[in-house]
């Protein structure tokens, strides 16, 4: 039986982790084309922290609660939904609302929990899988044999990107900021570059330059990324942790036929996200079920300790994903 009220964590006001407060909220109702999920695990992502700080407003019509991914059980199906039924175990990309016991989302944005994975592991997949696949495979057009560089290789995005690129037959390099993080990247199949000790421009230059770079740093890395690219290389930007502005010589883009692009996931249309979900279902999920790609989980926290989870994320000490346990898995 679905209750009228649920536990959730809301952003009481813009600010640091302490503004995340446990509350009681009405359980949402699945509308047309939506499903209602009883959440057992929710992912913690940097956009959650940006929203908490008042720097990233949710899209129109989305829940004001943070949380962009979850795994759980379908307990309600809206009109027009034929893919899912109550009792199905799913993981899903959310427009918001994941820090709660129940959440609604477009039915086409949910994916079956891959065979061999727990709900805990599945909750670590949607945000990173959607982001990496759409930017590395679709937008970046990575091909077997190409040289691929990902910055922040020990992050949730980075660990997923290393594995997908390896599964596609690319040669992979990854930057990270400590020996422990570099070891994690190496274990996943990347040539690790400790950016505190080595210059990734020189490292990639010795191998002919990168065919594709996935960057979430921005700032001073942007010009260095262009120098690191091989002729006809591609740079895909997905975040700007180091700043969104750079002083660039655009002549090199013309002379070396470089491609610079980027995207952000949350503002894209429901139809665009549904197309990505279909690609994941057909192309990535078989790799997950075969063991070629697996989520890397750093730590878990109870839902009520969401503030501690945010502190862990903002410390940048984590390797892989941080999750919130919303309910017991059973």
From TrEMBL:
<keyword id="KW-0560">Oxidoreductase</keyword>
<protein>
    <submittedName>
        <fullName>NAD(P)H-quinone oxidoreductase</fullName>
    </submittedName>
</protein>
<dbReference type="InterPro" id="IPR020843">
    <property type="entry name" value="ER"/>
</dbReference>
<dbReference type="Pfam" id="PF13602">
    <property type="entry name" value="ADH_zinc_N_2"/>
</dbReference>
<dbReference type="InterPro" id="IPR036291">
    <property type="entry name" value="NAD(P)-bd_dom_sf"/>
</dbReference>
<dbReference type="InterPro" id="IPR011032">
    <property type="entry name" value="GroES-like_sf"/>
</dbReference>
<dbReference type="Pfam" id="PF08240">
    <property type="entry name" value="ADH_N"/>
</dbReference>
<dbReference type="InterPro" id="IPR014189">
    <property type="entry name" value="Quinone_OxRdtase_PIG3"/>
</dbReference>
<keyword id="KW-0521">NADP</keyword>
<dbReference type="InterPro" id="IPR013154">
    <property type="entry name" value="ADH-like_N"/>
</dbReference>
<feature type="domain" description="Enoyl reductase (ER)">
    <location>
        <begin position="15"/>
        <end position="324"/>
    </location>
</feature>
């Amino acid at each position: 039986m679905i209750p009228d009220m649920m536990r959730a964590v809301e952003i009481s006001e813009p600010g640091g982790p302490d503004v995340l407060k446990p509350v009681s909220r009405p359980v949402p109702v699945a509308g047309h084309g939506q499903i209602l999920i009883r959440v057992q695990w929710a992912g913690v992502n940097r956009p959650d922290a940006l929203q908490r700080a008042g720097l990233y407003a949710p899209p129109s019509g989305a829940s004001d609660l943070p949380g962009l991914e979850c795994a759980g059980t379908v307990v309600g199906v809206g009109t027009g939904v034929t893919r899912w039924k109550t009792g199905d175990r799913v993981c899903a990309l959310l427009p918001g609302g994941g820090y709660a016991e129940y959440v609604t989302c477009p039915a086409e944005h949910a994916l079956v929990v891959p065979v061999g994975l727990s709900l805990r592991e599945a909750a670590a997949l949607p945000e990173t899988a959607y982001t990496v696949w759409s930017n590395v495979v679709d937008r970046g057009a990575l091909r077997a044999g190409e040289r691929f560089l990902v910055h922040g290789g020990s992050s949730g995005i980075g660990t997923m990107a290393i594995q997908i690129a390896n599964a596609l037959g690319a040669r992979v390099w990854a930057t990270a900021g400590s020996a422990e993080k570099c070891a994690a990247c190496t274990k996943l199949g990347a040539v690790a570059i400790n950016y505190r000790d080595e210059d990734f421009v020189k490292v990639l230059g010795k191998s002919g330059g990168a065919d594709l770079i996935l960057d979430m740093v921005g700032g001073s890395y942007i010009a260095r990324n262009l120098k690191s690219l091989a002729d006809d290389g591609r740079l895909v930007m997905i975040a700007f942790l180091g700043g969104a502005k750079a002083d660039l010589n655009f002549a090199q883009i013309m002379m070396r036929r470089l491609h610079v692009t980027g995207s952000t996931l949350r503002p894209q249309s429901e139809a665009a996200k549904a197309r990505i979900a279909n690609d994941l279902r057909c192309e990535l999920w078989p790799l997950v079920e075969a063991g070629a790609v697996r989520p890397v989980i750093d730590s878990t926290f109870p839902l009520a300790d969401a503030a501690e989870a945010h502190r862990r994320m903002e410390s940048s000490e984590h390797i892989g994903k941080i999750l919130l346990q919303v309910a017991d898995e059973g």
